[in-house]
Prior knowledge:
Blueprint: H1 3-16, E1 47-52, E2 65-67, E3 73-75, E4 79-80, E5 88-93, E6 99-103, E7 110-114, E8 123-130, E9 137-145, E10 150-157, E11 162-167, E12 172-178, E13 185-191, E14 196-201, E15 206-211, E16 216-217, E17 223-224, E18 228-234, E19 239-244, E20 250-255, E21 265-270, E22 278-284, E23 292-297, E24 302-307, E25 313-318, E26 327-333
Parallel strand pairs: 4-8
Antiparallel strand pairs: 1-2, 1-26, 2-3, 5-6, 6-7, 7-8, 9-10, 10-11, 11-12, 13-14, 14-15, 15-16, 15-17, 18-19, 19-20, 20-21, 22-23, 23-24, 24-25
Amino acid sequence: MRIAVLLVALVCALLLSAAPVLGRKRQQATTRRHVSIGKQPQAAGPRIYISFHGGGKGSDVNNVWSFSLTGELLSQAVLEGDAVAQGLRSLLLFTDGSMLASNANKDDSRIAQYSPCGADGTRKYMGDFATIGLAHSYGLALGSVPQGNESVVWASNQDTADIAQFSLSGQYEGQLHQFADGEELRSLAFNDQTGVLYVADETQNAVLAYDSRAQVWNSSLSFSVTDPVGLYLDAPRQLLYVGSNDAPSAVFAYDVSASAAGLGRLTQTFKDRGLSHPAGLLVVDAAAGSPTLLALSQDTNTLLAFDAATGAFIRVVIDADQFDDTVEQIMLSPC
């Protein structure tokens, strides 16, 4: 199945009709007080979702916020009906337009499922996609395995250092792999064109590659990156973006196409004094001009924009004063 390609095509088609994404000069986003959007019909079109660290305190954000592609706040409550959401991490657009969210609460690790977005921009809680085989889960990826070209969902577990595998109905199918005790696993990204699952392993200072077709870990497709956290695959361009929590922090883009010989070829490096601990990563296309890399910088709690083609810093899209909690992950929603 070519699920990942179809999802990317859907999002890109909507993006082509959107307004240009970002300006081209460095400037701070205007600081403003939060205004709750409420249940109002919202303009159709793609938008950015951001998850937060969350927790049990009253000030913690245990929901997903949505923003326009230019950084305008649209909603502080995308999710509805999930009273126990806490510690949201990776967000994953599912095959039917619904969304999966990794709930990383150590005492309530689960993958929750939310409906396709409604006219008011919300996604309603449909129930838990999975609860078994999860322990402080972080990354999510939609992929496939050779057996009958079966589609699966993978989740990385921080406390048990393993990758859990689930069917599309949420049935736990066991561990894809058990890593050494204490290894810190972060984001996942699956390349549908090559069948390779990429795993950010902070302990090994590497992005590891699992060849799902041959069902082996392939060291020739892995590469060294200091403290990798965020991963994002730009499927149409076959570029894997990796956020490194090195000193200084950086985001690296690698060519991971089938034609790339062995190790991914480094094609671009993104750095800025405001970039520290890049976690969530996303590439968006404007109607004209170069694609834009959006990077959530956790230590500065900002969303930064870079020219994906040249590596040049563009601007701060959303500054720290506009967030009520520490940012975690980012996803492009088609509605």
